[in-house]
Structure formats: structure tokens, C-alpha cells
Amino acid sequence: MSDSPLxxxxxxxxxxxxxxxxxxxxxxxxxxxxxxxxxxxxxxxLQQTPVAxxxxxxxxxxxxxxxxxxxxAEPPGEAVRAWDRLGYPRRALRLxxxxxxxxxxxxxEVPDDHxxxxxxxxxxxxxxxxxxxxxxxxxxxxxxTNVRRVFARALTGVAQPTISPTAADQRxxxxxxxxxxxxxxxxxxxxxxxxxxxxxARIPRCGECPISRQCAWVxxxxxxxxxxxxxxxxxxxxxxxxRGRLLAVLRAASGPVAKKSLDASWPDQVQRERAxxxxxxxxxVEPLRRNRYRLPH
Length: 297
Fold this sequence. Notes:
The chain is mainly α. The chain is 55% helix and 3% strand. The protein has helices at 7-23, 36-46, 51-64, 68-72, 76-83, 90-106, 114-118, 125-136, 145-156, 167-176, 181-197, 216-219, 239-252, 259-263, 269-281, and strands spanning 257-258, 286-288, 292-294. It has a three-stranded antiparallel β-sheet.
């Protein structure tokens, strides 16, 4: 595919970038002196987690571990403990593993090479592109749920993107990139912010959108979504909730925890044992002798 942006996308660049300059949220990982590690930590934490929940955990994390080497020097269980209630705690283990790889392979500095980023533990296509773009100003398509929704509406005229990311989403995002590297990096974060604040999933604020006059979906009359049902995530009563309860007990303890203390955290024995087995299998909990458990060392 050509490096030249789509003609329709080109018309969106200036209004979106101007809107971002005037409306971007002030976030610590966006500060000019934040550094690549700050960006990396934020990207791990923001996966499936809103900014409001991430901010306090991020600030505590960066005070304790301002550099990858600071985190790498501690046991992985400390990363799981500090993750607290952010959810999906395997992200903490992956970030810890990435920090150790950065120390071992890159002298303790987050690499600026996209391929090297992609080779780090826990860093996939999206995260590598986000770090390369946001931390190092490189030209990459950074495609999260917000970006997919903006492009689905503005460029293809549908109310919602497909439920799961597709290769077509990536191709569209690449085709929409400005040619200039620095502009492309700003465009990446600007489209993400537009999706988070204005082009939202449930009630888009089209009256405040800088590209509503060019948006293919608006021009088509804002047709309703007609794809497969989009089910909201549940939490109450799920194994995820049980895992959270078990981890909360272990996080609060200064040492190994007796099995009976874990048993008291959830009444359903079958579900509790299944959740505990899953935590052990995921490396989030270590079983010890005498029926005791702890966070990983």
C-alpha cells in the first residue's frame, strides 16, 4: 500500500490535530519529560482500564519504580501487589518481565526500535506501535478501540467497528497516516483522544466533533449499528471476581498465606478452587508446602 494518506483522511488531519491541541487531557505520561518508560507503563495499565482508575496506580508505580531497572530488581510478586485493583493482573507480570528484558538486552533503557519493542515480553502490535509513536515520535498506525471507532464512522460510514480488530482496520489506519513522521505521531494520539472524549461508543457528541462535516457516518444520516450484538462485560459472580478476591488476600499479607485464609474469601468451593488453580497456572500465585500460598518470587 502507498505511503500517501487516503484523500478523505487527508482532509481530517488538520481539524483533528487542531482540536487535539486545544482539548487534549493533561496526563503525566504525555508530559514532555515523561520518557519512554512512563509511556510504556501507561500503555500496559490502560489496556481495558479507564484513565481515571489508572492515574493513582500509575503515579504510585512511577514513584516506586521510575526506571525499568528499579522494577526488574524486585520479585515479580511485588509488581502484582502494586497492580492492586487495576484488573487483568497478568499485565503486571508481563511488564515486570519486559523490565528485566530491557535491563538484560538494552542497558536499562526502553529501546526506540519498533522490532526491539515488539520482541519484549507482553508487547504486542498495538503496544509496540504506541510506545514507538508516543515516546519516540515515529510514524506508526496505533490502533485501539477508540481509533477503530473513529475510522469506522469517519472513513467507512458505519456506527461501530467490528467487535474484534481485523487486518482491514490496520490497513485503514496505515492508509490514514500523515506522511510526515512527527505529524503522524501527533495524529495517532489525537485520533485516540477524539474517540475517548467525543466519538464515544454509546452517545457520540457529534456537535462537538471537529470533523462532523466530513464524517461519512454523519453524512449518511448516522445509521444505527446493525451488526452482531455487542455484549457488555460482566464481573459480579465471575471467576474474575473470585481471582480478584484471592489476590487481594495475598496482596494484603506480608508473607505466605494459609489456605484457610484464602477459603474465607469466597463461599463457592468449586469456583474458588478453579480460580486458585488458574492463578497458579498463570504464574500469579505460588503454592508452597504446608498448604500455603504467596505472590510469585
